[in-house]
Amino acid sequence: MESVYAHIDANTQKYIDRLGEAIAIPSISGDASHRSDVFRMGAWLKTELVRLGFSAIEEHLPGKQTLQGHELDLPPVVLATFGEDNNKPTVLVYGHYDVQPALKDDGWKYEPFQMVHEKETGRIYGRGSTDDKAPILSWLWVVEAYKALGKELPVNLKVCFEGMEESGSEGLDDIIFKEADRYFKNVDCVCISDNYWLGTKKPCLTYGLRGVSYFMLEIHGPAKDLHSGVFGGTVHEPMTDLIHIMSKLVSPDGKILIPGIYDDVAPVTEDENKLYQGLDFTLTDIHNATESETTIHESVRDTLMHRWRFPSLSLHGIEGAFYAPGAKTVIPAKVIGKFSIRSVPNQTPERIAEIVKTHVESEFKKLKSRNTLKFEAPQGGKCWVADVNNWNFVAARSAIEKVFKTSPDLTREGGSIPVTLTFQEALNKSVLLLPMGRSDDGAHSTNEKIDLFNYIEGIKLLATYLEEVAAVPK
Ligand SMILES: C[C@H](N)C(=O)N[C@@H](Cc1c[nH]cn1)C(=O)O
Ligand SMILES: [Zn+2]
Ligand SMILES: [Zn+2]
């Protein structure tokens, strides 16, 4: 692998520049006004796939969605293949080219969609840098390196890049089930690089994800915003109703207050308890990542359990609420409260949506308000836990040992990648998560970054993983 590693090192600046090009496309899937940018990012990837000589490039359009009052086309799922040699294993890699929203005013030190490489810290800042643009590009740079060196790729590579992951992967499951016996027919294993190391120093291999169910509570009353001096105390205020209901969802110490929510949670087993010993993680890691000491739990074990294997409920925001500076005395006519639940084995999105709806409606009824409540559950992605005793994990472990000269921690992830379980169920093949970024990368947050070290060593890791997949006994 020395020639591959040397090539990757020698092309570092090129990889940084191209990541900068990708970051400059604000492919925010959750914002209707940026839908054309999501399409532009998909087209940018397609151009790269063509340039690199991928074959069977297909763009699957998942259909339409209504978002923020607009009917929009869903961005393409981009499929492409490199190599079709029946004597080689076929690896399917998945990633997403959409990103979370970001505004400089949220507290970014640089413009979020203009990449900045801080040479003194080695950090590359920009929305999507770690989630998930550097990882998806890295698969392409592996192919490019092999081509430049005149080396054969040890496997057939299939890519599946989507543009809606940050918004519930709408339409993707149908495409995967439809293509299971055609495009994905010969796939032997799946690798996803779209999560993060547990800390900042030790690489990880990830075998579990929580699911995510997203909810919106719309309360509307008066036909228009009102003067609080004229109407305060005389009308039911939508915001007062909403705040009351939202306060009945979760306690400040993280307990979910929805009756029945913990009923299906799998009990902690003795074997599972042992997995929490010896992980390279301290509470300081989480304090550094959050730049605060606001953790709820006293021990590492409890903290990780509440990230990995217990459900959590987070309140995200209130659309329609007055939030600008100043002291405007308005009664908002319509507000939409947003929250999500991260789910775990053996919870299902269907059951969660059912009990959340019952709880919210019963709390609203108690208010005897004359306002109107509309409950929506627009996204429901399932959790995933994998068997780590198979050759896909063996190959990835060995690749990590070769590149980083250390054994990885086996981790679960508190976040969600809804398609993971879909691949496992539709293709009946092992799926693993091979993270590139660090816990303090700030995915979804302000000042998202990836360290240059993680980007460059990550490209080497992906190349080595493909070599190990070809080499391990199956
Ligand atoms: C872990 C992955 N990189 C990620 O960020 N996933 C999102 C997926 C999502 C967002 N909305 C709905 N699903 C996440 O875990 O929030
Ligand atoms: Zn992601
Ligand atoms: Zn994300």
Compact description:
This protein has helices at residues 2-10, 12-23, 35-51, 129-149, 172-179, 228-231, 238-246, 270-275, 283-290, 300-308, 349-367, 391-404, 419-427, 452-471, and strands at 55-60, 64-67, 70-73, 77-82, 90-96, 116-118, 123-125, 156-162, 189-192, 204-209, 211-220, 226-227, 312-319, 330-331, 334-343, 372-381, 384-385, 409-413, 430-433, 449-451. The protein is α+β, with helices and mostly antiparallel strands and 474 residues long. It is globular.
Structure explained in plain terms:
The chain is of the alpha+beta class and 474 residues long. It folds into 2 domains: 298 residues, Aminopeptidase (3-Layer(aba) Sandwich), CATH 3.40.630; 128 residues, Alpha-Beta Plaits. It has 14 helices and 20 strands. The strands form 6 sheets. The chain has a 6-stranded mixed beta sheet, with helices on both faces. The radius of gyration is 23 Å and the shape is globular. The two termini are 22 Å apart. The site of one zinc ion (ZN) has 5 residues, from helix 4. One zinc ion (ZN) binds next to loops. It comes from Rhizoclosmatium globosum. InterPro entries: ArgE/DapE_CS (IPR001261), CNDP/DUG1 (IPR017153), Cyt/Met_Dipeptidase (IPR051458), Peptidase_M20 (IPR002933), Peptidase_M20_dimer (IPR011650). GO terms for molecular function: identical protein binding; metal ion binding; metallodipeptidase activity; omega peptidase activity.
